[in-house]
Fold each of these.
Amino acid sequence: MRKPLTDRPVEDGSMNGRMMQLEFRKAVKEDVPKLIMFLKDTIVEVYGQILSREILQPWVEGDRLSSDVNQLWPKMIVAEKADEILAVAASLDDKVAFLWVHPAHHRKGIGSAMLNIVETELEKSGYKTAKLECFSDNDRAMGFYLAKGWKILCEEMDEEAGALKIVMTKTLTNESRECANGP
Ligand SMILES: CC(C)(COP(=O)(O)OP(=O)(O)OC[C@H]1O[C@@H](n2cnc3c(N)ncnc32)[C@H](O)[C@@H]1OP(=O)(O)O)[C@@H](O)C(=O)NCCC(=O)NCCS
């Protein structure tokens, strides 16, 4: 069953200031083909400048994305508008495992809303702090997480990806979320 996680509308600037009603909900099995398409469509925009073509190839052309989504979809939440998936996020244990907003919809508050939902779910699961990993060269995501109150813990080598990644952490309290979300 499709269960909304929040009914808070997110304003889409491309709609001339009108409210675009986004639904934030847990992913369901029927989303899997759309999720694979969404991630395949955006992976080069997200990681093309950060990871080598050889490293990306199994995801872009092979079946790594498909097998990851088939395994991870029960942990995913989606932002959807008119049957189109605009963003995907997932948690795994105490981690924000990933958060992707479609490039056509960046800087409209969708990433913030998704992150807020994931952090709330982690807190409800009993975690007091959360972690995430972000490639060091992913300036856009680093800017986003720092703005959302995440702190840098350390930098390490991701051997599989052949790139440096930053481990970040955040204390999960309503107060820290409200501060990071602004007035
Ligand atoms: C990172 C990402 C999730 C942000 O999502 P978003 O919906 O664009 O973010 P929001 O609109 O909620 O931005 C909230 C705040 O974060 C900061 N921020 C967002 N994008 C930023 C950027 N490119 N540079 C610097 N700061 C940024 C700003 O402070 C922004 O507030 P403002 O727009 O009022 O200035 C999105 O860019 C994305 O999906 N990137 C590709 C996937 C990715 O790299 N995911 C993270 C992997 S670890």
Amino acid sequence: MKPATTPLNASPAGSHAWRPDRFMLIVAHPDDADFGPAATAARWIDEGSEGWLVCCTSGDQGGEDFATDPLVLAAMREAEQRAATAIIGYTGVSFLHQPDGGLANDLALRELLVREIRTFRPDAVLATDPETLFHGDAGINHTDHRAAAIAAVDAVYPASRNPMAFPWLARDGLAPHPVRRMYLFWSNHPTVRVDVTATIGRKIDALRAHESQIRHPERLEARIREWAREEGQEIGAEAAEALRLIVIDEDPTDEPGATETSDDDPTATS
Ligand SMILES: [Zn+2]
């Protein structure tokens, strides 16, 4: 229950308040972003951020019938994700068309992700936690989720900021770009919680767009609201999303002579 001192529509104390101007979600499958931090993305976009979604695969193994044409399924899932992306309000979505069930953190995928990062130039990248092999004591994290997660980490650092990584990219005009933060979801070790009371409904609407993947649509809303309620208890919010924050660089300051990475500046916000 909300503390009585928390005014309506205000973030309660303890809610994570930092917001990127630009952020990118990197996920394995269509629907991962929407089961993940979609309400955080929607809140940030409502408050002025620009977001971009990258799906490494198009989910061509996400069915129950071996006779399904995987190309037909991939096209359907891309359409579902485009609809969900519009509901959340992303500026756009990229599909990298890697094989579902066979995603590998190789140099080819890293180059594709570095291209995406250097093109959109996000302050923060969101991905699943690459250290999640099991979900607590229950369930195994999908191999593609783990591959996309570690690929996102390796693309963020050091490749995206290193001009000598894939040097043809810089020669083609894709200048190196330092991502300052990563927010990891589906983590066993979350460190921040974002109050998403105002946008949890959009997350549910976005999830409904993944019609091919939702087996019990009548149970979806209750399930998502219950998860968000549990995450919100710690900060006294009706709904929250839990994330593991990794700060790579402090934010640049406006002070003359301030450096891009103001590690030694005690006034830098974090
Ligand atoms: Zn997935």
